[in-house]
Amino acid sequence: MSLADYARQHGLKRVGARPEFLEYLAQAWSRRDFAFTLSLFANQAANARNRLGRWWVLLLPTIQAMVYGLIFGIIMGSSRPDNFIPFLFTGVFLFSYFAGSFQSGASSVTGNVGLVRSLSFPRMLLPISAVMRQFFNLLPQLGLLLVALVLFQQDITWGWLALFPILFLMTMFAFGLAMVAARLTVHIQDLTKIIPFMVRVVFYTSGIFFSMERVLGDFPVVLQIMQFNPVYAFIELSRGALIEGHEMTGFLWAVCSSWAVGALLLGVLFFWKAEERYGRED
Fold first, then answer.
1. Residue 63 phi, psi dihedral angles, 5° rounding
2. What is the pTM (predicted TM-score) of this model?
3. pLDDT digits (tens, 9 = 90+) for 3-36
4. CA proximity to 105, closest of 95, 116, 97
């Protein structure tokens, strides 16, 4: 009998061993308060030294939307999408949620190495906490977005309620994305240098400030491919719920649901597989 078999026979377990998948999920769920509290304190710490504090949560995306609206509104001229300001604000505000989840999720493990090495808990809670932090930032932004829609003469309709399931699917997708990014940056820390460029590329190819149908109207094959872009699909579905002239099609619901479920399952499994490696120096 080997030493390992002898240890298992007497109920001994290897320190830091990865638990079974379902057990791992149960442990993460039982400690969900840890992720919630960590996200709250991270938000407070991020704004503690700023004079305007949490007002920057609203100011940054608003300033971005205004700058993009001024620049691209002039550049595109008559080719601007209909209801351009609501169109642009919806795109910028929701994209900031995706970008923030991806970037903060990518650094959630490498940026908390001391915590990982000193405490025993499911490491999955770190990227989950990062996405929760971005979700808390999104809530006041959504309030401002709805006010802006009313100011620019968008009718309040029952369709606005569809934003709740859309946000649920978006958050599922963001969780999966954050967990994939968190593991990849643990293995290849150089990726943190590339992520900002990746975010910019996604921004300029997801129809945030232009109509995908108008720009790619002469390239139907490319347009069909680009419609499977998850960021575009989620934002366009949200525009269908909020803005006149846009529709919540069954195709968009199918694409968003598939990306949400697929990304979450992939992210959880991918992250869990490397649970034992987080915090190690080798």
1. -65, -40
2. 0.86
3. 555 445 545 455 556 788 889 899 999 988 988 8
4. 97
